[in-house]
Amino acid sequence: MKYTIRIIMTAFICYSLREISIILKSKLNMRSNFFLTVISLALITVCVSCSSDDDDVSSNVDNLTGTWICYEQTWHEDGKTWSKSYSGNDYYIVFNNNNSGSMNSGSDELMEIGRSHSFTYTFTGNNIISDIYGETIWMVVSLSDKQLTLKWEDEGYWIECKFKKFGADSDDGELTSESLVGRWACLAFTDEDGQERTFSINDLKLAAGEYAWYIEFNSDGTGYKNVGSYMVLGSTSTPFYWTFSKNVIQISNNGIDETDWRVESFKKGVLVLSSHNKIFKATLKKGGIRKY
Description:
Order of helices and strands: HHHEEEEEEEEEHEEHEEEEEEE
Radius of gyration: 27 Å
Structural class: alpha+beta
CATH class of the largest domain: Mainly Beta
CATH topology of the largest domain: Lipocalin
Mean pLDDT: 79
CATH architecture of the largest domain: Beta Barrel
Number of helices: 5
Number of strands: 18
Helix content: 10-25%
Number of domains: 3
Low-confidence stretches: 1-7, 46-54
Shape: elongated
Strand order of the largest sheet: 1-3-4-5-6-7-8-9
Distance between the termini: 44 Å
């Protein structure tokens, strides 16, 4: 659609300038006509150039960096179109800020890419050019800080994939019982001696569920803290029951009778909890669940 609009606008400008030139031709001398022609060509060049710049999404390269989870793939071949939706984090693509990347295509093979691949890429204009299979080009249909749509074409056969950035759904900073449900990877915690421990977990491992320690909140009010022998929020690994109200998670049957986990902050998907008058703290981020 945007290319059609561009063509119409350019044609309109050209037609208008031609008509102006015809009208002025009888009133201006040859030299004036020459300068009018030069100015007209310059205006057309500027208009087309500005239109092209507006459609160049490579200026959003910072938005591209991150882990993208595919939630829908659409195929088109021989006049037929069909789609498939995905839940979970099985299908994903990662773009790092050093022009390296990786992807897991699963059984449906995202954009005809089989299995898992690591790659390098360049982002120019509306195209991402990777070195998969020598050279693979994905056209960026749309790109924002939360959504990405890529398209691959081969002689009339095309595939379009829609992605959402991992963790983007939790950017509002408002925690509810519904958004609390899930498995939260433990990124760091402070123990009873005031010692802080941190765990290195990148977005790719987080999406794939590749982390050892976590706290899980189920929708039925049950939960489980899997932290080994570490004292996280006042206890080691244990099942529990939970309720949530006014930024307080009330915990029972967790090995220390009843206690409260208070929400210190919730920003950009990172949840910080404290307990026992802030003696214990834990930093958590929601992750995927590994499928065995």
